[in-house]
Amino acid sequence: MSNKLKMLAIAAALAASTSSAALAQVCPAGYTWYAGVCQPAAAPAPYAYAPSNPVSGAVHGEMSGAAAGAAAAGPVGAVVGGALGAATGTVAGTANMVTGAPVATSGSSVPPARVAAPAVVCEPGYTLYSERCYPAR
Known about the structure:
Layout (H helix, E strand, L loop, with lengths): L2 H15 L2 H4 L7 E4 L2 E4 L7 E2 L4 H46 L6 E2 L18 E4 L2 E4 L2
Antiparallel strand pairs: 1-2, 3-4, 5-6
């Protein structure tokens, strides 16, 4: 038996042994797999970050500046916002490093609110058990 045929047989055996439910749990961006279906994901929680040195300040400033610039003006805004964010992040990181305290932060220091999990609703022919939907008997 050639090596190609052996590899094909092994791949087929692995594919056959993999659960079809595990293969089907892929959701589009902005959605998460919950209760057997893709559901809208909650927005990421706000956070506070204080860079402790110029390098981490530059990286964080560039990321947040590029995200804000892209939201405001598309790709050109992302480039400009990233450049400005890198500069201000470097200054903030340096100030935090020199003073030893988080003088300059970004984000919010308010803890995120707890978001209740969406109600589980099973499709017809399925029953809810332990937060999952199973075929009804």
